[in-house]
Amino acid sequence: MKFLGKKATAMPLMAIAATLALGAPQAGAQGLFDMLFGGGIRHEPQGEFPPPPPKHRPKAPAAGGGGGVKISSPSYYTYKADKLVRVDFSTLSAAPQAAAPQDAAFVPSATGAAFHDAIASLSDYELYAEPDIAKALIAYYSANPDFIWVTGTSLNNRAQDAVRVLGEAASYGLTPADYTVDVPAATSSSDDATKLRELVRFEMALSARVLRYAHDAQSGRVEPNRMTGYYDFPAKPIDMVGVLKTLAHTQEVRTYLESRHPQNAEYQALRVELEALQASAENEIVVDPKLLLKPGQTSPELPKLLSLISRNLDDEMGGTYGELLSRLATSEVYVPELVPLIKAVQVKEGMKGDGVIGPRTVALLAGTSKADRLLKVQVALEELRWLPSDLGSPRVFINQPAFTASYIDNGQEQLKTRAVVGRVTNQTAFFYDQIKQVDFHPYWGVPQSIIVNEMLPRLRSDPGYLDRAGYEVTDSRGKRIPSSAVNWGAYGANIPYNVRQQPSEANALGELKILFPNKHAIYMHDTPQKSFFKQDMRALSHGCVRLQDPRGMAAAVLGTSVDYIAEKLKHGHSTENVTRTIPVYVAYFTAWPDMSGKVEYFNDVYDRDSRLKQALDATEAVRSPSS
């Protein structure tokens, strides 16, 4: 469970809602720390931590103690794409014709001599590419001095297929202009030397853009870890020279290039959605997505919502509310008579029926704009390229904007449970890992960030608090010492003690946790705060993922029954290893298909889509002047 204390620059409405949901501060031991992490309280805790300042002045930190030091959260960065470099063809041009090819498997074709003659004309050719692609071009053609895309004096079938695939990049949410190649006309020149010059330049340009396409399809257009410390993805290296070798020896160019894309059902469903959106008209009825309307208030947006409700009435709702809608269809005043209708619509859509018309209600009734949905789908396609092509089965998939966690096996969603994820100020990272262990009645090892940022201010004035609240303090050698014996005022960001909470009803992790060890200290766990699962906006934790049905998830990953889990919980603290390979995706998708392929849309709670859009724009800006 990770504390991320640095606020985002702009806090969206959801973050404000999360703050309000936690309530106002309370005094004494029933602060936010007690509410979130226990502290001996056995009821549903309330309030905020840190508590209000005590009536007496706390002890001042010792000199050099760093009283105001905090452990900050990861940050977001202004994305800078790698600059393109001019391909240096001088080494190819300087090679003597009689030189033996470097690749022992290379078999020269009838055009080999023509290729050698043509490369001399590349000396003044300005072709720009990514550094690794530029390097791969020289490496490949040095070892294999022959055309891939040209046969005789014309483009071959490979070239035609490749150009077609590159031209269809938009169907994958890519930008076709990134892969544009000038195709020489069949009758562009009667001069053999000029024709050969055009062909060899086309050869190099197409190889460069094919390599860019292969890279983008497999790994994405941006490097996610350079966007923010919240993203953590292993590199997906691509053998650029190997790609060209494969393409030189196959006639199945389309099949090969398309195979570079993720090969999972979710990617295909998002492509289908993208195609449908590109062909669709804009929303007929557009409602202000930021509308907030309470009973008794007035808004010109209300008749639009009522019209949308009327359009989608089923027989049951129509029988109950049809006459009301007909009579008040043009009302701009949210009169009391309409409140039961709005509540019924909210409940039907799985929301809390509070009768307040806010952004979530508007999104469910009016949907998001076409432009917004297009961006969400394009972002989702890019993000899927950061993940393994085969997502694995079984797997656990956590989608943070949806506030859900699912266990998927054999193409079926065996379990789906509500989840709580990190607040805007304590964001959950985006990464994937492998589930290793289930801990029953776990200890909670308090992260240093929480010790420093949340516990330490209190401990300076009340050093014995941890002793009373059920926490253990140990030194660097693992020796347990009383919290009251530590001079907490002497420390700042570097505290040489470990703190853990003992198993109890008040333990912050509840009755079990599911571990997939990672540098973010994030895992799935139970919680004593069951009321959070009733809320629609559930970005409320310190970063870990709280589950509404932790027993069901534990049973799923262990391949056993809920009854078995219940029995294990009767016997106190224990652990059990997960013996199967089960990847877990702690993911962030604002557009994601359900198991039937229908794409659902979610609010961008952390404002990450716009940051990815900035990174994509930066990448396109670097690529646009390339030839």
TrEMBL record:
PANTHER family in the cross-refs: BLR7131 PROTEIN, L,D-TRANSPEPTIDASE HI_1667-RELATED
GO biological process: cell wall organization; peptidoglycan biosynthetic process; regulation of cell shape
UniProt keyword terms in alphabetical order: Cell shape, Cell wall biogenesis/degradation, Peptidoglycan synthesis, Signal, Transferase
Pfam families named among the record's database cross-references: Scaffold, YkuD
Record domain L,D-TPase catalytic: where: 394-565
Protein's UniProt name: Murein L,D-transpeptidase
PROSITE patterns: LD_TPASE (PS52029)
Organism the protein comes from: Mesorhizobium erdmanii
Record keyword Glycoprotein present: no
